[in-house]
Amino acid sequence: MKVNKSIYKKEMFDVAVIGGGPAGMIAAGRAAELGAKVILIEKNKRLGEKLLITGGGRCNVLNGETDMRKLLSKYGENDKFLFSAFSQFGSREALDFFHSHNMPTIEEAGKRVFPETQKSSSVWNVMIEYMRTHNVLVRSNSPVVKFTRNNGKIEAVVLKNGEEIKANSFILATGGKSRPETGSTGDGFLWLKDLGHTVINPVPALVPVTVKDAWVKSLMGVSVSPVKVTVLQNNIKQEVKKGKILFTHFGLSGPTILNMSLGISELLKFGEVTISLDIFPAHDHSAMNTLLQELFREHSNKKIKNSLGKIIPSALLPVIFLLLNINSDTFCRSITREQRLSLITLLKGIPIKVKGLLGAEKAIITSGGVSLDEVDFKTMRSRIYRNLYLVGDILNIDRPSGGYSLQLCWTTGYVAGSSAAA
Predict the structure, then answer these.
(1) Any idea what DSSP says for residue 16?
(2) Which of 4, 30, 174, 320 has the fewest CB atoms within 10 Å, measured from its CB?
(3) Are 392 and 407 contacting, i.e. CB atoms less than 8 angstroms apart?
(4) What does the DSSP assignment read for 90-149?
(5) How far is CA 267 from CA 77, 209, 241, in A?
(6) pTM of the entire structure?
(7) Helix (H, G, I), strand (E, B) or coil at 196
(8) What number of other Cβ atoms are within 10 A of residue 158's Cβ?
(9) What is the per-residue pLDDT across 228-252, written as a single tens digit (0 to 9) for each?
(10) What is the DSSP letter of 186?
(11) Torsions phi, psi of 256, nearest 5?
(12) pLDDT in tens, 379-407
């Protein structure tokens, strides 16, 4: 892979890719693999900055669901747009791609696929080698400031240093506005608006939630699973999901919370929001009553803090005793019926008041982007400019956590690279 060896002022490329994230890298590699002369332009010094921090550095590289309809259902009402692209390069093809490039994988709960090394650098290395093998020219540390166009076509991109890079086709892969320190600052949305595309204003999605309850801070780093999470407004149930949550110094995170964050964000516009945590989702109140009665009878001469530790994560116990105003040294035989019923109510619905959401700086993705009606998903080509292709987070496609974001990048990038090379 050639890197920054010349200014190439007069050189004409077959394909110019703007943005060196996962969608941009696979698009560049695929186009070059098909014989195109490709340049990848990246404003950062290093490619794939966000890829390297994905999944806490583990990188949930894709979702292993191979049933096309089940996979696309995770993208909501956008499935009708995505079917054509995913038919060309879906999760099965993406998995084969990484395996063929000597990256073994493992599958975890929810069909989340990770590199066997548990390191995002393994995914990064595959992408870099893919481009190097097919002679993609990389221009890093080269911010783009605008497009030049003529007669319904893009002619060139202009770099910050004034240089123009010309190509027959352009692939825009600049990402959304999440984690701006990685370079995702929304530049592509501004260019698309200037080009006449409709852009739905991006807002943070898949974002950790901040809370008002001070006790949550004492549980920083504690994860609990499975938990049934219910979002309420005015005591009315709004959304329910079951899965894993993580307590943090500011509130709540983890896959389940992240997947509910966009809905919480919308509800906050209309008033206060409360999250209720059921840490025994498999038991109803009657079953919980039976469970606790048997536990307290069996451990009648033990302190409640020791007996409850048999069924509840020990890190949660101080908080439970605090919220119930029960002395943790109380013997089980001394627990009253009213205290037992109060304990059941709490375990089936620990209330937490939502303060807000962290901003784009902590969002995994942003919701919003270019209108899907303006993209031909058979090729990822813009319906306004016949030599412009749009991929990855630049598209207005919501999706949950669990490998679906990177799969969207691999799919749309691969299809765009194939089409632009043709």
Answers:
(1) E
(2) 4
(3) no
(4) -HHHHHHHHHHTT--EEEEGGGEEEETT--HHHHHHHHHHHHHHTT-EEE-S--EEEEEE
(5) 20, 13, 16
(6) 0.71
(7) coil
(8) 14
(9) 999 999 898 999 999 999 999 999 9
(10) S
(11) -65, -45
(12) 999 999 999 999 998 998 888 778 898 99
